[in-house]
Amino acid sequence: MDRIPILKMGQFLLVTIQIDLYDRIALNLETDLVQMIHKTGARGVLIDISAVSIVDSFMGRILGNIATMSKILDAETVVVGMQPAVAITLVELGLPLNGVFTALNVERGMNLLQSRLASNPDEEEDEDDNPE
Amino acid sequence: MITLNRDRLLIHKDQDVVILRNRVKEYATKIGMGLVNQTKLITGTSELVRNMLRYAQGGEVLIEVVSRGRENGIRLTFSDRGPGIADLDKAMQDGFSTGRSLGLGLPGTKRLMSEFSIKSAPGEGTTVTVIKWKNG
Fold first, then answer.
1. Which of A76, A84, B93, B116 has an alpha carbon 20 to 30 Å from A43's alpha carbon atom?
2. Which chain A residues are within 8 Å of B94, Cβ to Cβ?
3. What is the pLDDT of residues B74-96, one digit of tens each?
4. Among the partner residues B14, B35, B38, nearest to A23 by beta-carbon distance
5. What do you get for the CA distance between the two ends of chain B, in Å?
6. CA-CA distance, B91 to B98, in Å (whole number)?
7. Looking at the partner chain, which of A23, A83, A89 has a beta carbon nearest the beta carbon of B40?
8. pLDDT tens digit string along B28-79?
9. pLDDT value at position A122?
10. Could you tell me if A40 and A13 are in contact, meaning their C-beta atoms sit under 8 angstroms apart?
C-alpha cells in the first residue's frame, strides 16, 4: 500500500494517516494533496496524525511543505491529533513545525479551518488587497 | 556493560524502515521503556536509517538489549559501507547537509539519545552507535 486516501468534504480535504509512514508514502501524499487542491478548489486541508506514533525530520518537513504548497494554492492546512510523545520528540529533534497550524483534535481543527475561511472569504474583492 | 539479547537486520529499501522501527519498538516495550523514551528512540532510529539508505544505499543494524548497573537500555549500531563522512564536526552541526535535507538528522538524533558515538572516514563507511536507557 503506497497511498493514503484523501476525502473531500465540502470545501475541505480530509486525510487520516492510519499507517506507519515511510518516505515514499509521505512524498506521494504531498503530491496527491497538491493535485487534489488544484482539482477540487478546496480551501482547507485537515491532516489527522493521531494514529502516527513517530514523526521524524523528513515527515516533519513534508508536513511543512504541504502547508506551504497549499497556501500558495489558497488553501489552509491544519495538522490535528498529534500525540504528546511526538510533540516532545519533535521539539527536541529541533523541528518545531513553524508555519503549520495545529489543533488538538479533528473537531477543533475543523473549527480553525472554518474560522480562517470566514475571516478570509472567497474572492469578492480583487486579490490584490490580500496582504499575502 | 552486559548484552542480554541481540538481533541483526539488513536494510536495503525504504519499507525496511518500518520493519526496523517495529523491531526496535518490540525490544523497547520488552524492557518496559516508557512511551516518550520509546518515541525518541524510534524517531532517532528513523533518522539514522534514512541516512544509511540515502548516502550508502543501505547497511546493517544491530539491536541489543544492554544493561549497566541497574539500568537497562537498547543499544543500536548502524553500519554501512558507504562513502563515509569527510567532516564529522560539520556533520554534527544543526542545519548542515550535503544532501537536500534540513540537516537535523545527526545532531537531532544525538539530542534524542542517551549516548551517541559516530565513526567514519572517507571511503570507509560509517558506524553510528546509540544507546537509549530505559529511564534516560
1. A84
2. 94
3. 999 999 999 999 889 989 988 88
4. B14
5. 16
6. 9
7. A89
8. 999 999 999 999 999 999 999 999 999 999 999 999 999 999 999 999 999 9
9. 63
10. yes
CB contact under 8 A, B108 and A95: yes
The ranges assigned to domains in chain A are 6-118
What are the cell numbers at B43?
A: 524517531
Measured between beta carbons, which residues in chain A are less than 8 angstroms from residue B47?
A: 56-57, 93
Residue A61, by phi and psi: left (phi above 0), alpha (psi -120 to 50) or beta? alpha
Residue for cell digits 518496559? B32
The amino acid occupying position B34 is G
HEC readout, B14-62: CCHHHHHHHHHHHHHHHCCCCHHHHHHHHHHHHHHHHHHHHHHCCEEEE
The yes or no reply on domain A6-118 and CATH 3.90.1150.10 is: no
Q: Which residue has the cell 538481533?
A: B7
Q: What is the ipTM of this complex?
A: 0.89
Q: What is the rounded distance in angstroms from the CA atom of residue B21 to the CA atom of residue A54? A: 10
Residue range B116-129: mean pLDDT, rounded: 95
Contact between residue B118 and residue B112 where contact means Cβ atoms under 8 Å apart: no
Smallest CA-to-CA distance from A96 within A82, A77, A109 is with A82
What residues have CB less than 8 Å from A92, skipping those under 6 apart? B40, B108, B111, B112
Nearest residue to B128 (alpha-carbon basis) of B29, B52, B14, B32: B52
Residues of B in contact with A95 (CB under 8 A): 102, 104, 108
Enumerate residues 6+ apart whose C-beta is below 8 A from B95.
B102, B103, B104
Q: Map out the domains of chain B with their CATH numbers.
A: 2-133 (3.30.565.10)
